[in-house]
Amino acid sequence: MSECAIEARGLTKRFGRNVAVDGLELAIPYGRVYGFLGRNGAGKTTTIKMLLGLLSPTCGNISVLGLDPRKQAKAIKLQVGYVAENQRMYGWMKVKEILKFTAGFYSTWDKELVQESIERFELDPEAKVKSLSQGQRMRLALVLALAHNPRLLILDDPTMGLDPISRKEFLNDIISSLREGGRTIFFSTHLLAEIERVADSVAIIDRGKLKVAGEIDFLKSTTKGIRLTFADSPPKQISVEGLLRVQTNGRDCVITVKDFSETKVDVLRLQYDPVHHEVIDLSLDDIFSEFVLS
């Protein structure tokens, strides 16, 4: 049995001349809360559709819970909970009706969990789905995704379109679900603040290509800004191993590097002779920007 809930090797999807996902490499161990980060159009939803067997890769290999989505999509769907952006549900059904309808597809449906969830999320079983607010619909979608006790929960930008209060409440709902333990969560989003609250690892994708992946704490410890202040204008060109981006402002120059070490600071000081230097810690939002814009 693979040690990873999700594995991708050279995963590629082309639509004509457009390369939506380009040689993606992922290895996500069981039990992780994994953030999949990228701008709109970066290839996140296309990747998820390949994970679920809804799209076939152009080339590359993919494994979900040890299964091949190209051949075993049905078996995967029975073990995966999925919440999509603007999830479609039958609006004419009542909450209790859509729960009963969905339960028929799963032998592992947990009625007790459903009852606890609709009470916790304050969902009226008699309410029509179309009468629910956007936040209530997303809570219902989360109940539907969790009710069969999936081993893997996939969230595709689920808070897109929610107001800030509803977004925070929905994220709290997700955190509550994490306490049930043992479940792997793959959380795709472009909203960085919400990921930092729940995820332990992230991958950053841009234009279909993986830019970086790793534990959040590791990325923060190895991706740093170095501010150099010069007596006059900064040099026109600055080079150092692992350089991501250089930004200048007056006499200051901020260099962002990956694989940070104090040796790199020493190299910059000796080579460019600044009058002052400072190492800057970066937030996950900063790190995302640096890798995407580099």
TrEMBL record:
Transmembrane region(s)? none
Q: Which SMART domains does the UniProt entry name for this protein? A: AAA
Family to which the UniProt record says this protein belongs: Belongs to the ABC transporter superfamily.
Q: What is this protein called?
A: ABC transporter ATP-binding protein
PROSITE patterns (alphabetical): ABC_TRANSPORTER_1 (PS00211), ABC_TRANSPORTER_2 (PS50893)
Query: Which residues does UniProt assign to the signal peptide?
Result: none
Which keywords accompany this UniProt record? ATP-binding, Nodulation, Nucleotide-binding, Transport
Question: Which species does this protein come from?
Answer: Abyssobacteria bacterium (strain SURF_5)
Q: Where is the ABC transporter domain?
A: 6-232
Would I find Nucleotide-binding among this entry's keywords?
yes
Identify the taxonomic lineage of the organism of origin. Answer: Bacteria, Pseudomonadati, Candidatus Hydrogenedentota, Candidatus Abyssobacteria
Q: Which GO terms describe its molecular function?
A: ATP binding; ATP hydrolysis activity
